[in-house]
User: Which sequence fits this backbone?
C-alpha cells in the first residue's frame, strides 16, 4: 500500500467514525427529548386538539434558523404563541394578567430584561436597543422561550445559575406557572385562598429550577410573553414568518401623555428634570425629550405597519388601546381571546371582576389591580399643562392616529368628565 492509499483509508475510516459519532449524538439527544416528553405528556385534552398536535417536537428544540424551516408539509400546531407587545408604563402588567390567569397558558413577564442586563450597566448600554445585534439576541431568546427552552436564559441571568437553579429570575412572581406546581410545591394554601402570587411567591418559590420550569411550560397548551424592550413591530418579523410559531401579536398602546405621567411617577430618579418642569410649568433647558419622542415614533410606526396588514403580519396583529381595555375589561378580553381563537377561561373572567371593581376590597393593593374606570385618564390631574402642550407637539401624529384628542387649555385638560379618548375601532 502506498503512502497515499494509506492516507485515503485513514480518511475514509475517520469519516466513518465521525458519522458514527454524529449518529450516536443524535440518538442520545432524541432519547433525551423523548424521555422529557414521556415525563410530561403533551397537553391534548380534547380530540380536536389532538389531531392538530404535531409529532415534531425535536425540531422545536433546535435553535432559531429560518433556513431549516420546511416550507411544505408543515403542520400548524394548535399551540398558540402570544406576544404582548408594548412599551413601559402602558398598562402591560394589567393586560398580561389576561394571559397569566389562564390555566392553559404559560405566561412570562419581560424575560428580555435578563438579556438587556448583559448589554447594559445601569443606563449605559453597549449597544442601542435599535441595533440589529441586540434585536437578533432578543429574537433568539424569544424563539427559545416560545419553544419552552427556559434554560436558554441561563446565558443571561446574573449571577449565573448553578445546576439550573436561580434565585434571580426577573419578576418570577408575575408568572403564575412559576409560582405553582410542579415548579413550586409550596403555595397550595395561598393559591387555594386566592392570594395573589405577588404577596407570597417571592418568599416560598424563590429558588427556581429552570429545567422544571421548561417542563411546566411544555405541559401547558400555550405560551404568552410580554415585552416592553422591542422598539418596533417590524423587529418581530422573522418570528411572525416562522411557521413553527404561528405567532399572534397583541399590540398594547396608551396615550403618550399618560405614559409620560406614569414614568415620571414611577422612575423618579431619571425624571428629576421633568418633576421640576411639572412643578414650575417652565421647561428646564436640560430636560431630555428624546425618550418620549422615540416612544411616540415607535408607536406610530408600529401601528402604521400593523394596520396596513402586510403579508407577514396579516391575521397576526391586534391593536388594543389600554384605555378601552381599562374601561371595558371583560368585553375587550373576550375580543382578544376571539382574535387568538382561544376560549377564555372562567379564571380570567373572575380575575377581571375582582380586580377592576371599585368596591371590591382587594382592589388597588397590587400594581396590576386598579379601579380601572377612573385610572386611564387620571393623568390629566397629574401633569402640568406646559408639559402636555410639549408632548402634544412632539407626538401629534401618534395622538391623531390613535384617537387621543389634544387639549387647547388647562381648563379643558382638567375637565376629566369630557373624555379625550375618541371611540375608535381599528
Ligand atoms: C422565512 O421563511 C418563510 C417561510 O419559508 C419565508 O416566507 C420567509 O421569506 C423567510 N424569511 C426570511 C427572512 O428568510
Ligand atoms: C458599572 O459601571 C460602574 C462605573 O461606571 C463600575 O464601577 C461598575 O463596576 C460597573 N458594573 C458592572 C457590573 O460592570
Ligand atoms: C431540577 O428539576 C429536574 C426535573 O425535575 C430534576 O431532574 C433536577 O434534579 C432538579 N435540579 C435540582 C438541582 O434540584
Ligand atoms: C364588586 O365587588 C363587590 C364586593 O366584593 C361585589 O359584591 C360585586 O358583585 C362586585 N361587582 C362586580 C361587577 O363584579
Ligand atoms: C405634577 O404637579 C402636580 C401639582 O402641580 C402634582 O399634583 C402632580 O402629582 C405632579 N405630577 C407628577 C407626575 O409628579
Ligand atoms: C404634526 O406636526 C408636524 C410638524 O409640525 C406636521 O407636519 C404634521 O402635519 C402634524 N400632524 C398632524 C396629524 O397634525
Assistant:
Amino acid at each position: 500500500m502506498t503512502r497515499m492509499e494509506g492516507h485515503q483509508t485513514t480518511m475514509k475510516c475517520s469519516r466513518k467514525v465521525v458519522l458514527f459519532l454524529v449518529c450516536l449524538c443524535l440518538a442520545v439527544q432524541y432519547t433525551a427529548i423523548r424521555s422529557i416528553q414521556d415525563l410530561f405528556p403533551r397537553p391534548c385534552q380534547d380530540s380536536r386538539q389532538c389531531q392538530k398536535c404535531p409529532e415534531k417536537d425535536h425540531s422545536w428544540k433546535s435553535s432559531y434558523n429560518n433556513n431549516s424551516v420546511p416550507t411544505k408539509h408543515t403542520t400548524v400546531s394548535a399551540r398558540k404563541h402570544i406576544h404582548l407587545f408594548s412599551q413601559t408604563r402602558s398598562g402591560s402588567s394589567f393586560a398580561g394578567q389576561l394571559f397569566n390567569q389562564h390555566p392553559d397558558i404559560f405566561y412570562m413577564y419581560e424575560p428580555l430584561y435578563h438579556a438587556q442586563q448583559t448589554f447594559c450597566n445601569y443606563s449605559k448600554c453597549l449597544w442601542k436597543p435599535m441595533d440589529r445585534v441586540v434585536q437578533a439576541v432578543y429574537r433568539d431568546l424569544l424563539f427559545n422561550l416560545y419553544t419552552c427552552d427556559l434554560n436558554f436564559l441561563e446565558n443571561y441571568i446574573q449571577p449565573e445559575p448553578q445546576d439550573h437553579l436561580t434565585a434571580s429570575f426577573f419578576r418570577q412572581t408575575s408568572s403564575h406557572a412559576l409560582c405553582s406546581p410542579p415548579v413550586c410545591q409550596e403555595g397550595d394554601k395561598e393559591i387555594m385562598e386566592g392570594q395573589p402570587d405577588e404577596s407570597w411567591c417571592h418568599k416560598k418559590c424563590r429558588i427556581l429550577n429552570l429545567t422544571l420550569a421548561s417542563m411546566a411550560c411544555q405541559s401547558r397548551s400555550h405560551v404568552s410573553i410580554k415585552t416592553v424592550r422591542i422598539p418596533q413591530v417590524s423587529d418581530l418579523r422573522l418570528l411572525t414568518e416562522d411557521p413553527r410559531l404561528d405567532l399572534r401579536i397583541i399590540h398594547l398602546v396608551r396615550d403618550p401623555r399618560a405614559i409620560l405621567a406614569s414614568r415620571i411617577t414611577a422612575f423618579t430618579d431619571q425624571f428629576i428634570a421633568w418633576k421640576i418642569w411639572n412643578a414650575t410649568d417652565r421647561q428646564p433647558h436640560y430636560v431630555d425629550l428624546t425618550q418620549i419622542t422615540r416612544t411616540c415614533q415607535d408607536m406610530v410606526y408600529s401601528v402604521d405597519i400593523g394596520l396596513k396588514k402586510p403579508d407577514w403580519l396579516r391575521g397576526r396583529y391586534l391593536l388594543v388601546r389600554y384605555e378601552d381595555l381599562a374601561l371595558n375589561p371583560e368585553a375587550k378580553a373576550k375580543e382578544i381571546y376571539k382574535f387568538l381563537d382561544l376560549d377564555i377561561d372562567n379564571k380570567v373572567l373572575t380575575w377581571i371582576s375582582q380586580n377592576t371593581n371599585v368596591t371590591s376590597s382587594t382592589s388597588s393593593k397590587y400594581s396590576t389591580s386598579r379601579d380601572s374606570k377612573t385610572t386611564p385618564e387620571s393623568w390629566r390631574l397629574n401633569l402640568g399643562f406646559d408639559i402636555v402642550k410639549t408632548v402634544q407637539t412632539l407626538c401629534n401624529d401618534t395622538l391623531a392616529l390613535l384617537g387621543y384628542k389634544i387639549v387647547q387649555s388647562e381648563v379643558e385638560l382638567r375637565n376629566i368628565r369630557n373624555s379625550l379618548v375618541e371611540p375608535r375601532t381599528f
